[in-house]
Amino acid sequence: MLIDTARLHLRRAADEVDTHAHAGRRSALTERARLRMDAARAMRCARNAVSPLLDTAGAGSFADGSDLQRPWRDIEAASRHAALSVQTSKEIYGRRSAAPRCRRARSSERGRR
């Protein structure tokens, strides 16, 4: 299920990037924030999907000769890249999503004064 979830997030992001690229335009800041959030969420799902495999394989899966060692190391390193931080992506997406509503609220407050 985690791998399916990661795939769905990445497919949605890729489809949106392709749509904008074919139209010759750049996506809006809110859309880019969601794209970043999709990528971060996909990475988190992929990372969480690998963990049970390592638990099942045991400590030997961390040995240099293990087939699981390199994919584990790669996903652990990649998931710590700043661009794939779920927390940072949530914050950016939240700020971008709330920005238009906050501006409208401030404008309506000024109009009441």
Uncertain stretches: none
Give the overall pLDDT as a whole number.
Answer: 88
Oligomer description: single chain
Determine the structural class based on helices, strands and strand pairing: mainly alpha
Shape: elongated
Number of strands: 0
Rg calc: 19 Å
**Contiguous helical run count:** 4
- H/E series: HHHH
Largest sheet: none
Distance from N terminus to C terminus (CA atoms, Å) equals 53 Å
How much of the sequence lies in strands comes to under 5%
Percent helix range: over 70%
What distinguishing features does this structure have?
113 residues; mainly alpha; 4 helices; elongated
Helix and strand topology:
Blueprint: H1 2-23, H2 29-57, H3 69-78, H4 86-112
Description:
The N and C termini lie far apart (53 Å). The model has no long low-confidence stretch (mean pLDDT 88). The chain is 78% helix and 0% strand. It has 4 helices and no strands. Helix 1 runs antiparallel to helix 2 (29-57), helix 2 (29-57) runs antiparallel to helix 3 and helix 2 (29-57) packs antiparallel against helix 4.
Short précis:
With 113 residues, the protein is mainly alpha-helical.
